[in-house]
Design goal:
Structural class: alpha+beta
Shape: globular
Helix content: 25-40%
Largest sheet: 8 strands, mixed
Distance between the termini: 81 Å
Number of strands: 16
Number of helices: 9
Strand content: 25-35%
């Protein structure tokens, strides 16, 4: 074989080796992309903030050490479609959930968290997966039959939820109150209005206990949450509701995850997955 042929052969072999190496690297990088967050291979962990006390949506079982409910099932399916291998749950409350998301403790909130103009200034929201209304619950023995019987009564709400502000706005709009706050406690949990009083509580159980003891005359909360605390001695007041409370997945404002979550959840809504999950737990 001539010298020129040998050199040409070596160059062709070298080029082939380089091409093979490039192809191998591309495959490795492609595999990494496919198995990371947002891919389809299933690796990584999606950190989700959920409620631990809303039966049917997300509640923690001390015996199994697991969370159960519609929002848990939505989180699992969402993580799968985004390419995560598993979901890590963090229990949040209305008081703590926004800090958990802003600090990066969780990647998203699926925690009976409703969309509002104010919240949308700080967080991104997916399409809504559930719509609810704020209702009033009273003890049957109170003989409260409707909103006309609530003059001078004490309303209880969950601290950190937007229920209190929406309640105040509603009572003003229907002419029940002039909207004035006459006295506010130092911790902001006890507010006197012109025709009604407001107390807020750190948990729904504490709120329910306050209704039981008579510390509050009615409790205001989302209908889905109220179901957890209804019993034969309690009634939902007729003729009262604040619509709508639109639950959606919240992510950090402008994050790369926001668009992916919105797209995946919209697909889950369009193909009937979300409706099926909600029906299972309703």
């Amino acid at each position: 074989m001539g010298k020129g042929l040998k050199v040409g052969l070596r160059l062709r072999l070298l080029a082939a080796a380089v091409a093979a190496c490039a192809l191998a690297c591309a495959c490795v990088l492609g595999a990494c992309a496919a198995t990371g967050a947002g891919g389809s291979g299933g690796s990584g962990v999606l950190h989700v903030g959920v409620r631990a006390d809303v039966v049917g949506f997300s509640s923690y079982n001390d015996h199994t050490g697991k969370y159960y409910g519609a929002e848990v099932d939505i989180a699992e399916e969402l993580a799968k479609r985004l390419g995560y291998a598993s979901v890590d749950y963090t229990a949040v409350t209305p008081d703590s959930r926004e800090d958990a998301l802003q600090s990066g403790q969780v990647d998203c909130l699926i925690a009976c968290y409703s969309v509002s103009d104010t919240r949308s200034q700080s967080f991104d929201f997916s399409p809504e997966y559930y719509t609810d209304s704020i209702i009033l619950v009273a003890q049957d023995s109170s003989l409260i039959g409707g909103i006309d019987d609530l003059q001078g009564c004490t309303f209880g709400t969950m601290s950190g939820a937007n229920t209190a502000s929406q309640l105040a706005q509603y009572l003003t709009e229907v002419g029940f109150s002039d909207g004035r706050e006459l006295a506010v406690s130092t911790d902001g949990r006890d507010i006197g209005h012109d025709t009604w009083h407001l107390k807020t509580y750190a948990s729904y159980q504490a709120l329910s206990d306050a209704l039981e003891s008579g510390e509050v005359d009615v409790m205001a909360c989302d209908g889905a949450i109220a179901k957890t605390y209804l019993n034969s001695e309690r009634v939902i007041l007729p003729g009262f509701s604040i619509d709508p409370q639109r639950y959606a997945v919240a992510t950090q404002k402008g994050s790369a995850l926001s668009a992916k979550v919105s797209d995946a959840l919209q697909q889950m809504i369009d193909d009937g997955t979300v409706a099926g999950i909600i029906d299972t737990w309703d």
